Amino acid sequence: MSALTLESVSVSRGAGPVISDVTLTVESGSVTALVGPNGAGKTSLLESISGVIGTSAGSINLDGKPIGKLSRVRRARAGIVHIEQGRAVFPSLTVLENLRLTARSQREVDEAIALFPELEKRIASATGLLSGGEQQMVVLARAFASKPRFLLIDEMSLGLAPVVFMRLLPIVDRLRENGVGVLLVEQFTHLALSIARDALVVASGRVTYQGPAAELQNSPEILRHAYLGTPPPPRETA
Ligand SMILES: Nc1ncnc2c1ncn2[C@@H]1O[C@H](COP(=O)(O)OP(=O)(O)OP(=O)(O)O)[C@@H](O)[C@H]1O
Questions:
Q1: Helix residue ranges, H only, 116-232
Q2: What is the ipTM of this complex?
Q3: How far, in Å, are 141, 166, 195 from residue 177 at the CA level?
């Protein structure tokens, strides 16, 4: 079992700390939802994992080996792929050309198309002509074509209606079934929790909940306290 682990990670930017003391394990073939209020530090945490920004304390490990000092490119080569906010496609290139940009071989392109049959009929279209949801699908397919071991997805739903975003969730689940470990930052909390096994809530840079996604999904009170950063209600005993 492959794992991406963070041990007591802290991140500072600008005026001071934005992430404090986060410990987390994402296993291959699992989805972890990372949720929390605006400005909580979710994007900063993803950026520190992929190497966009540095950490101020703690360690980031891939299968037990520290990767926190590696460049962004080397982390990507090791299999940590970060889908940043916004739809980063080349709109004037066709879907196929966008896939070829990250795939290392035609086989990887074919595998991506096989996993995303929805894109097959649009393969020769300019990507900019696709709907927002379809373009996000191209982003996911392109990420898959780059053979990720761990995928960090930052607000894939940005600019999409919930109903469109809901159509992308089974695709994330398909990636998971293919062994990818997914860390999913999402503003549509309940939709993210619905496909996640584990959940992490951060508020003001600190972890306020860590546990099964189903528990958060089923307990609005626990979720509310986690977002507010206040102590959770006592667990009911049988
Ligand atoms: N480039 C930057 N320079 C300085 N401070 C930044 C920068 N980017 C973000 N911050 C600050 O870091 C804190 C965490 O921001 P971050 O974007 O990580 O939160 P977030 O949980 O992803 O928020 P949102 O859900 O609104 O996207 C905020 O206080 C933000 O103002």
A1: 132-145, 162-177, 189-195, 213-218, 220-228
A2: 0.96
A3: 14, 18, 12
CA nearest ligand 1 atom 24, residue: 38
Is residue 151 within a helix (H) or strand (E), and if so which, with residue range?
strand 150-154
CA 51 from centre of chain? 14
| pLDDT tens digits along 140-163 | 898 888 889 999 999 988 888 888
> Strands, DSSP E only, in 14-144?
16-27, 31-35, 57-62, 65-66, 80-83
Out of 8-12, 51-55, 146-150, 162-166, which region has the weakest mean confidence (pLDDT)? 162-166
Contact 118, 126 (CB under 8 A): no
Q: What is the residue-wise DSSP string for 43-62?
A: HHHHHHHHTSS--SEEEEEE
What atom of ligand 1 comes closest to residue 40's alpha carbon?
21
Q: Into which CATH architecture does domain 3-86+147-228 fall?
A: 3-Layer(aba) Sandwich (3.40)
The closest-lying atom of ligand 1 relative to the alpha carbon of residue 36 is: 21
Residues 182, 143 contacting (CB under 8 angstroms): no
* Band of residue 238 on the pLDDT scale cut at 50, 70, 90: low
Classify residue 222 by its DSSP letter.
Answer: H
Name every protein residue with a CB atom under 6 angstroms from any ligand 1 atom: 13-14, 18, 36, 38-44
Q: Please give the biggest Cα pair distance in the chain.
A: 60
Domain ranges of the chain: 3-86+147-228
Residue 139 one-letter amino acid: V
State both tokens at 152: 């960090």
* Model pTM above 0.90: yes
